[in-house]
Amino acid sequence: MIINFDTITLIISNKKMILLDYYLRRMKYERISIDELEKLEKEFIDFLVVNGISATDWVSIKENEPLTADKIINQFSDVVWESILRSTKYLNKIENKISYFFECNSEEINLIIINKSTNKQKKTSKKYNKIREIEMFEMIMSGCVISDGENYNKLK
Question: pTM of the predicted model, to two decimals?
Answer without folding.
Answer: 0.76
